[in-house]
Amino acid sequence: MEDNTNLIESLxxxxxxxxxxxxxxxxxxxxxxxxxxxxxxxxxxxICILIASFLLFLNLGIAFWLGKILGTIYYGFFxxxxxxxxxxxxFHNFMRKWLKKNINNYIIKMILK
Length: 113
Hints:
The protein is an all-alpha fold. It is built from 2 helices and no strands. The two termini are about 50 Å apart. About 0% of the residues are buried. The model has no long low-confidence stretch (mean pLDDT about 85).
């Protein structure tokens, strides 16, 4: 009878150790996936900031140039604003679902990688 008790205690101890190890492994896997996703996000965000800065100054230059051509500087800014309004409406109506699907797929691919 004592052998059965020792066997059951040993089995319970091993099961407890297995559970703790499995939990630690799951935590480490989650940490790995999170750090991988964040580390891939940082370079993309830097590139996006650089592109946004470039586009800002390009738009300012085009707005001043168009304003000079149209005779009043602020007309150039109105033209650029109208362009972005039209582009935003087109993007919202035609490309929103496509972009959302691609971002979701990218996030899922990064997590399951």
